[in-house]
Amino acid sequence: MTELVHNKNKTHLDSTGRISAAFAIRTVLFLSLFGLLVVANLLPGSTGLFWASAYAAENSDTGSKYGTARTKKRHAVGQQCGKKLEQIQVELEGERWSQARSLLKASLDSACKSSYEKSQVWNFLAYTYYSMDNLKEAINSYKKVIAEPETDERLKTSVYYSIAQLYFAVEDYKNAARFLETWMKESAIVGADGKVLLAQAYYQLNRKTEALKFVNEAIDEWQKKGNTPKENWWGLQRVLYYD
């Protein structure tokens, strides 16, 4: 069997080139972090900004899913926390990860005290830890986003996907599949890229029948829209048929 080779951002078959699936994790996490910053009429004392995030996929079929996703009551980030997050965002954009981490951890006990505010802080922390190559703490921080009772449903759904990608990066395919399955259950629409990603996890777990089902669905959906399936999708399909 051809060996799969992994690095921080890519998974591919090393000798034949049949699969070349790039996991642009940094891009996905960055878009998840800063994906939605909506001006809204909020509670007195708020910053006037509604902070939320959504997984922003490359393809329009997945990127629009959150327009109809289930949502909870919207919560506001208070003025004190909002100012702190704006300060932290400057540090993140400047890639000053240690400073950002220190400010974020301090804000959990000071400026950002509500459950909703903490969910935003944990989201920033997860991205910060990822950028510092600390994938274990990135995963742990994302799990704390999910655990907060006031986390926005769209953010929670996007975090399932982010955690799955991080588990891919550490070659924990069982947990990658588990979080992708949860993401699919919670998403209003599941695009072809997500199905192929789960197919790749199933392939690694030797669940080849399920893997083939999802990659076939992804290719069929893509073709029905008049799009050309990605080369690595065909490669995965061939591997599953003949491996």
Explain what the structure shows.
This protein has a domain at 24-150: Serine Threonine Protein Phosphatase 5, Tetratricopeptide repeat (Alpha Horseshoe), CATH 1.25.40. It contains eleven helices and five strands. The chain is elongated, with a radius of gyration of 19 Å. The strands form two sheets. The chain has a three-stranded antiparallel β-sheet with strand order 1-2-3. Strands 4-5 form a two-stranded antiparallel ribbon. The chain has helices at 25-34, 60-63, 79-93, 97-107, 115-131, 135-147, 153-169, 173-186, 192-204, 208-224, 231-242, and strands at residues 4-6, 10-13, 20-22, 36-39, 49-52. The chain is mainly α.
Give the arrangement of secondary structure elements:
Blueprint: E1 4-6, E2 10-13, E3 20-22, H1 25-34, E4 36-39, E5 49-52, H2 60-63, H3 79-93, H4 97-107, H5 115-131, H6 135-147, H7 153-169, H8 173-186, H9 192-204, H10 208-224, H11 231-242
Antiparallel strand pairs: 1-2, 2-3, 4-5
